[in-house]
Amino acid sequence: xxxxxxxxxxxRLFHWALVILVVTSVTTGLTGGNAMSWHERSxxxxxxxxxxxxxxxxxxxxxxxxxxFLNGPRKVIDFLVVVLRNRPAHVxxxxxxxxxxxxxxMLSLTLQATTxxxxxxxxxxxxxxxxxxxxxxxxxxxxxxxxxAWVLITLAGIHVAAVLFHLLVRHENxxxxxxxxRKPWPDEQSQPLLRFAAGWLAALLFAISxxxxxxxxxxxxx
Length: 222
Hints:
222 residues, Fumarate Reductase Cytochrome B subunit, 2 strands
């Protein structure tokens, strides 16, 4: 087995920063009270990260791009058959099943962070943009925010379970790969040609993403 570089630094930083912020958001959201100020801050940070990741999915390195890991039904089914038969399947980036999970998580997180801007729990916290919409719209978005939180927790649970399955059953350490950026690759199998985008481009994209979020809140927030 050879060591193959598969994940760039921006993707890895995004992943672990998002893990920390999501745990913070869930914990503070369930705690309530004074913790809601940190819930709001983590939500804003998540929104900036997600805006960056959506952009990086089109402009980033090969394995970061949606075009690389979003596959059609046939490839998903073929990969599922391989997994059920416990046969080896070496994929440089996200596998066909994991790729769709990434998309679903990003969509759910984006919905959660966006609706949080307009939510109002009528006790402790009102979203910074809630004053821009009617009371009925605020109530609807708050309901979506509350319901989607459990959808998000469920998706995250499935994601963690899949990582553990790959570790314990298929003996693939996906966590280590997301830390080091490298995966073991069989010598008899030709290595894929992967392109890695420049770090300055990721830094610029994140700066723009953070700037857009902060500027929007500054101009339109309460």
